[in-house]
Amino acid sequence: MSSYSDNSKISPNNAHQARKRFGQNFLHDQNIIHKIIHAIQPKKSQNIVEIGPGQGALSYPLLDTLGKLTAVEIDRDLIAILNRQSTEHGKLIIHEADALKFNFHQLAKTGNKLRLVGNLPYNISTPLIFHLLEFLDVIDDMHFMLQKEVVQRMAAEPNTKIYGRLSVMLQWYCDVDYLFDIPANAFIPAPKIVSSLVRLRPKAQPLSTLNNPDQFAKLVRRVFQQRRKTLRNTLKQYLTEADIQALGIAPTARPETLSLLDFATLSNAIKVPIQ
């Protein structure tokens, strides 16, 4: 899903057909919009950036509070609508770009980190979240509407079926708060899934030292790609059974049973680069 719409602000001349290739479903439920704005708690001096503003359902109330808002939008037809209609609410600065390739560092200001908000298209939500992990040094927090099952995976605990790569990577770097669900009928067109609002806050301090963050990411990806296999099988090129045992981790363990610190311990012990 992507983009937002307050239909009361869209005239027939500005009607925009949702585009499947951009994963567009426009938010129109005013009660949900108000609930999201309340969760974000925007303040006038904050550097808020909206990913996928769509038809402005969140953009306009944010502008009413902030006076100025930055957005990243790929659909030039929507950009034209937003440029026409946003002026009565404040100054909207739109970057026409694919958020998956966008360099968010360019929007950061000294002493004023980014607060990201958005209704992320479910067809690119996971790769976009991983892309945003590259910019955590300039991000204060993120509020995103996502497919409910994606948010559940983000917040999942070990020893559950949905605990996986997304859970480990997000929870290592961020505090994950599953806020509330959003029904399909809050959007036009209504998607076939329920959405949820999640808050991600980069951790002020890491849980532990990572000798090589890139190695950590490769380890997490590797073991969850073969999640039915034991560690001694998935990591046999890098650690012996005795090595794993010496770390205080069972060589027969499967990845969904490991804690975040277990993954860090394994990563730090591996000396050969993981492919």
Explained architecture:
This protein is of the alpha/beta class. It has two domains: 7-202, 3-Layer(aba) Sandwich (Rossmann fold); 213-269, rRNA adenine dimethylase, C-terminal domain (Helicase, Ruva Protein, domain 3), CATH 1.10.8.100. Helix content is 32%, strand content 19%. It contains ten helices and nine strands. A seven-stranded mixed sheet has the order 4-3-2-5-6-9-7. A two-stranded antiparallel sheet has the order 1-8. Helix 7 crosses helix 10.
Brief sketch in words of this structure:
The chain is of the alpha/beta class and 275 residues long. Helices cover 32% and strands 19% of the residues.
What CATH architecture of the largest domain would you give?
3-Layer(aba) Sandwich
Percent helix range: 25-40%
Distance between the termini: 33 Å
CATH topology of the largest domain: Rossmann fold
Q: What fraction of the residues are assigned to beta strands by DSSP?
A: 15-25%
> What is the average of the pLDDT values?
91
Tally the beta strands: 9
Radius of gyration: 21 Å
Our count of helices gives 10
How many separate domains? 2
Major beta-sheet overview: 7 strands, mixed
Please identify the structural class as seen in this structure.
alpha/beta
How would you describe the shape?
elongated
Strand ordering within the main sheet: 4-3-2-5-6-9-7
Assign the CATH superfamily of the largest domain.
Vaccinia Virus protein VP39
Low-confidence stretches: 1-23
CATH class of the largest domain: Alpha Beta
H/E element order: EHEHEHEEHEHHEEEHHHH
